[in-house]
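[Meeting: bench + compute handoff]

Bench side (C.D.) handed over the final construct sequence. Compute side (W.E.) agreed to return the predicted structure before the next meeting so the bench team could plan truncations. Sequence as handed over:
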Amino acid sequence: MEQLFTHAVSLAVGLSLAASCGLRAFLPLFVLAIVSRLGPESLSLIQSESLQWLQSTPALIALGVAVVAEVTADKFPAVDHLLDLIQGPVRTIAGGLTCVAVVGHLPVWATALAAIVAG
Protein backbone atom coordinates (compact mmCIF):
# COMPACT_ATOMS: atom_id res chain seq x y z
CA MET A 1 0.00 0.00 0.00
CA GLU A 2 2.87 2.36 0.80
CA GLN A 3 4.40 1.73 -2.63
CA LEU A 4 1.10 2.60 -4.30
CA PHE A 5 0.99 5.89 -2.39
CA THR A 6 4.60 6.67 -3.38
CA HIS A 7 3.83 6.01 -7.05
CA ALA A 8 0.68 8.13 -6.91
CA VAL A 9 2.51 11.05 -5.31
CA SER A 10 5.38 10.92 -7.81
CA LEU A 11 2.89 10.75 -10.68
CA ALA A 12 1.01 13.77 -9.30
CA VAL A 13 4.25 15.74 -8.88
CA GLY A 14 5.41 14.81 -12.37
CA LEU A 15 2.15 15.80 -14.02
CA SER A 16 1.95 19.04 -12.02
CA LEU A 17 5.47 20.07 -13.01
CA ALA A 18 4.78 19.11 -16.61
CA ALA A 19 1.60 21.21 -16.63
CA SER A 20 3.55 24.23 -15.43
CA CYS A 21 5.86 23.84 -18.44
CA GLY A 22 2.98 25.17 -20.52
CA LEU A 23 3.52 28.62 -19.01
CA ARG A 24 7.30 28.68 -18.62
CA ALA A 25 9.12 25.92 -20.48
CA PHE A 26 12.41 26.01 -18.62
CA LEU A 27 11.50 27.19 -15.13
CA PRO A 28 10.03 23.88 -13.87
CA LEU A 29 13.05 21.97 -15.20
CA PHE A 30 15.39 24.47 -13.54
CA VAL A 31 13.58 24.28 -10.18
CA LEU A 32 13.50 20.48 -10.39
CA ALA A 33 17.24 20.34 -11.07
CA ILE A 34 18.11 22.84 -8.30
CA VAL A 35 15.99 21.08 -5.68
CA SER A 36 17.38 17.68 -6.65
CA ARG A 37 20.96 18.91 -6.52
CA LEU A 38 20.87 21.12 -3.43
CA GLY A 39 18.15 19.41 -1.41
CA PRO A 40 18.65 16.52 0.98
CA GLU A 41 19.27 13.04 -0.47
CA SER A 42 15.79 11.95 0.55
CA LEU A 43 14.30 14.75 -1.59
CA SER A 44 15.99 13.85 -4.87
CA LEU A 45 13.10 14.33 -7.25
CA ILE A 46 14.89 13.10 -10.36
CA GLN A 47 14.21 9.36 -10.24
CA SER A 48 15.18 8.47 -13.80
CA GLU A 49 18.74 7.16 -14.08
CA SER A 50 19.06 8.45 -17.64
CA LEU A 51 18.13 12.01 -16.62
CA GLN A 52 20.59 12.46 -13.76
CA TRP A 53 22.51 14.82 -16.06
CA LEU A 54 19.90 17.49 -15.25
CA GLN A 55 21.69 17.95 -11.91
CA SER A 56 25.06 18.63 -13.55
CA THR A 57 26.63 22.08 -13.46
CA PRO A 58 26.51 22.64 -17.25
CA ALA A 59 22.82 21.69 -17.33
CA LEU A 60 22.05 24.03 -14.41
CA ILE A 61 23.88 26.90 -16.12
CA ALA A 62 22.10 26.27 -19.44
CA LEU A 63 18.69 26.04 -17.76
CA GLY A 64 19.39 29.18 -15.71
CA VAL A 65 20.34 31.14 -18.83
CA ALA A 66 17.24 29.83 -20.61
CA VAL A 67 15.00 30.90 -17.70
CA VAL A 68 16.50 34.40 -17.66
CA ALA A 69 16.13 34.69 -21.45
CA GLU A 70 12.54 33.43 -21.30
CA VAL A 71 11.52 35.87 -18.55
CA THR A 72 13.36 38.79 -20.19
CA ALA A 73 11.82 38.08 -23.60
CA ASP A 74 8.35 38.42 -22.06
CA LYS A 75 8.98 42.12 -21.50
CA PHE A 76 9.30 42.88 -25.23
CA PRO A 77 6.12 42.18 -27.24
CA ALA A 78 7.79 41.38 -30.58
CA VAL A 79 10.32 39.04 -28.98
CA ASP A 80 7.59 37.50 -26.83
CA HIS A 81 5.48 36.71 -29.90
CA LEU A 82 8.44 35.10 -31.67
CA LEU A 83 9.30 33.12 -28.56
CA ASP A 84 5.71 31.88 -28.26
CA LEU A 85 5.88 30.57 -31.83
CA ILE A 86 9.14 28.76 -31.20
CA GLN A 87 8.24 27.44 -27.78
CA GLY A 88 5.14 25.49 -28.78
CA PRO A 89 7.10 22.28 -29.39
CA VAL A 90 9.67 23.19 -26.73
CA ARG A 91 7.00 23.34 -24.03
CA THR A 92 5.67 19.94 -25.07
CA ILE A 93 9.13 18.36 -24.93
CA ALA A 94 9.96 20.07 -21.63
CA GLY A 95 6.70 18.84 -20.10
CA GLY A 96 7.36 15.26 -21.13
CA LEU A 97 10.99 15.43 -19.98
CA THR A 98 10.00 16.86 -16.61
CA CYS A 99 7.42 14.16 -16.05
CA VAL A 100 9.80 11.36 -17.08
CA ALA A 101 12.48 12.72 -14.75
CA VAL A 102 10.14 12.44 -11.77
CA VAL A 103 8.34 9.18 -12.58
CA GLY A 104 11.33 7.35 -14.07
CA HIS A 105 11.24 4.67 -11.36
CA LEU A 106 7.81 3.44 -12.47
CA PRO A 107 7.47 0.60 -15.00
CA VAL A 108 8.35 1.57 -18.56
CA TRP A 109 4.75 1.46 -19.77
CA ALA A 110 3.62 3.77 -16.95
CA THR A 111 6.49 6.20 -17.56
CA ALA A 112 5.74 6.31 -21.29
CA LEU A 113 2.04 6.84 -20.68
CA ALA A 114 2.74 9.65 -18.19
CA ALA A 115 5.14 11.32 -20.65
CA ILE A 116 2.54 11.19 -23.42
CA VAL A 117 -0.15 12.63 -21.17
CA ALA A 118 2.19 15.30 -19.79
CA GLY A 119 3.57 16.33 -23.17
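W.E. noted at the follow-up: The longest helix spans residues 77-103. C.D. will use this when planning the next construct.
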